[in-house]
Structure formats: C-alpha cells, structure tokens
Design brief:
By secondary structure, this protein is an alpha+beta fold. It has helices spanning 2-10, 16-29, 31-45, 52-58, 63-78, 83-104, 112-136, 138-150, 185-195, 270-280; strands spanning 159-166, 169-177, 208-216, 219-223, 239-246, 249-255, 258-264, 292-295, 304-308. A hairpin with a 2-residue loop joins strand 1 (159-166) and strand 2 (169-177). Helix 1 (2-10) packs across helix 3, helix 6 packs across helix 8 (138-150) and helix 7 packs across helix 8 (138-150).
Length: 324
C-alpha cells in the first residue's frame, strides 16, 4: 500500500517516466495493484477520472512514457474475460479523454512501439464492438455508449460527439473538440474519416455528411455545410450530438395528379422506398405496398412514378402475356 502511494505520487513530476515504467512491470504481476495506484493518484491530485493518470501520461512529454501508459491500458483490458465488463472499462477509459487522443494520433509522429500498442487497442475495440452488436443488438450498444457519454463530465469540454455510420451500420463513436469561430464541419468530418475510413470500395465520401442534432432555422437537426463553422449553427459551448452518415436522396414521385417529394437513404431498397411512400401518399384503402413499384423516367430527369404492378394470373405471367 505505501509503495503504491509512492508510485502514484511519482506519476506526476520529474520521476514520471520511471513511475510508469514501474507501473508497467506492476501490471504484469497484478492489475489489482495498478487500480490501487490509480486510486491513490486520483485522491492525491483530485482528478475527475479514475484513469486520468494514464490519459495524462499519453499526453506526456516522452515517447517511452506514452508507450508504457498505452501498454498498461491494454494489459488492464486483456485481463478481463467478460465481454461486457471489457466493453464498459474501455468506454470508461475513452470518456476520461482517450477518445480525443485516439483521434489525434493519426496526425502525430509516434514510435513503432507506440503504434503497435495503439493498433492493438483499436483492433480489440473493433472486435469487442462487433461481438457486442451480435450479442445484444446495435440499439442497446448505442444506448450503452450514450450512457457513458452523458454521465457527469467535470472537464466541461466543448466537443462534437459523433455516431459514425457506413451504409446503414453503426461503426462507432468519436468525440471531436471544437473551437468557437474556428472549427468547421469539414474539420469534424476529416477527424471522423481519420478514425473510421470508408471500408467499401463502392462508397464515395461525397455521399456522406455531418448531421447536427441542433435546432436551426426552426428545424430539429441540420445537414452541415462543410465550409461553415459550427458557430454558424449556433454551437458555441458544451457537447453536441451529431451523426456522420450517408446523405438522403430527394426524389420527386408522381401519384395520380400529385407530385410528392420524398427523401430516403441511398442504401434503401426500392421496397423500402415504396413502403415509405405509402405513409405519405393518399393510397386506396385496399392498396398494398407489394402491389406497387417504382418507374423511373430516365429521359425526364430525376424522378419517378408510383405505379401499380401488372396483375398476374396463376401461371406467373402478366395480362400482356409477358414473362413473370
């Protein structure tokens, strides 16, 4: 106990590098002793987070210090066999400031040893995230992440908390700090893509955008213009929720004597679009979504029509004698 208190006190000051080198050796023998040292540090220096000492070291002045701190983080996570416990611990570390650091590292020069430790952290985080989604579903995983995001944060950082989607799948979250009057939507998007590059060769970054959950011009939520600063959308302090996802397409659809505009995500199928149209258009009471399809007038520019499908007889051929 006394020795761990000494280690904790040395984790800030001239003996920083040596203290974390020792903590790395302690972690190899007992992660419980590491937790005790971190508690002593938190009590001695009034840190808001249990893992504040590790995050501070990762921002530290020397590369060996950062390597030791990152290795300790990985060792604490590796010691846990339970998936949910490991998921929660990683989120606690991320909330202590690790998320901002991980976003910054792609733009920094780091040693091969630190790069290997970071890659281990990120790869195992991705694996655990996918396992959690398979185990409890994406909605519960997102709710769990938001629970950690919303817990009291005494630092009062100004940041955009972004849920990142590719196609229709949630890939994770990232917190991007912002400065009033300086940070643009493009800056946030670039940080997102540095952390979560598009995985599919068919994906085009031009199809994606940043959706801010703010009230703007009497609308709840707005697609941000990348050239605009966040201040343009009324963001001047505190944490803001956002999503980085595919921008919706707008299509004009004719039905009888009406023309309706509808928006849908590019990854949606025609069946999903037709089902959405049924909620917007004045359809007959006996009409069913599967009786209709979309017909695109290619020569007339963007748009289409909701049209009944030809009726079929029992042989699967339509009334005009065409194939089924």
């Amino acid at each position: 106990g006394a020795a761990l208190r000494v280690v904790a006190l040395c984790m800030r000051g001239a003996q920083l590098d040596g203290a974390f080198a020792l903590l790395r050796r302690v972690a190899a023998q007992s992660t419980a002793a590491v937790y005790e040292a971190l508690r002593h540090y938190q009590a001695a220096f009034g840190d808001a987070f249990r893992f504040g000492a590790l995050v501070s070291a990762l921002r530290g002045p020397s590369m060996p210090l950062k390597v030791h701190a990152m290795q300790v983080v990985n060792m604490l996570l590796d010691e846990l066999d339970d998936l949910e416990a490991r998921f929660d611990l990683r989120n606690e570390i991320m909330r202590a400031g690790m998320s901002e650091l991980m976003a910054d590292y792609p733009n920094m020069q780091v040693s091969a040893e630190l790069q290997a430790a970071i890659a281990t952290f990120e790869d195992k985080a991705d694996d655990d995230y996918q396992e959690m989604v398979e185990a409890v579903g994406p909605e519960r995983v997102m709710a769990r992440l938001e629970q950690f995001m919303s817990e009291a944060d005494d630092r009062g950082d100004d940041r955009v908390r972004v849920a990142v989607y590719q196609q229709n799948e949630l890939h994770g979250t990232i917190a991007v700090p912002y400065r009033v009057g300086e940070t643009t939507a493009k800056h946030v998007a670039d940080r997102v893509l540095a952390k979560f590059p598009l995985e599919s060769e068919d994906d085009d970054v031009d199809n994606y955008g940043l959706f801010l959950h703010v009230e703007h011009r009497n609308r709840q939520g707005v697609w941000a213009d990348e050239s605009r600063t966040l201040e343009h959308y009324g963001i001047v302090q505190g944490e803001v929720r956002a999503e980085y996802k595919m921008r919706p397409w707008t299509v004009c659809v004719r039905w009888r004597d009406k023309v309706e505009k509808t928006k849908f995500a590019p990854h949606h199928t025609c069946a999903q679009v037709v089902a959405s149209l049924f909620e917007q258009l004045d359809m007959p009471d006996d009409a069913m979504p599967f009786d209709f399809g979309l017909y695109s007038e290619m020569s007339g520019g963007p748009g289409g029509a909701a049209t009944p499908r030809p009726s079929r007889d029992d042989s699967g051929r339509d009334d005009k004698g065409g194939g089924g």
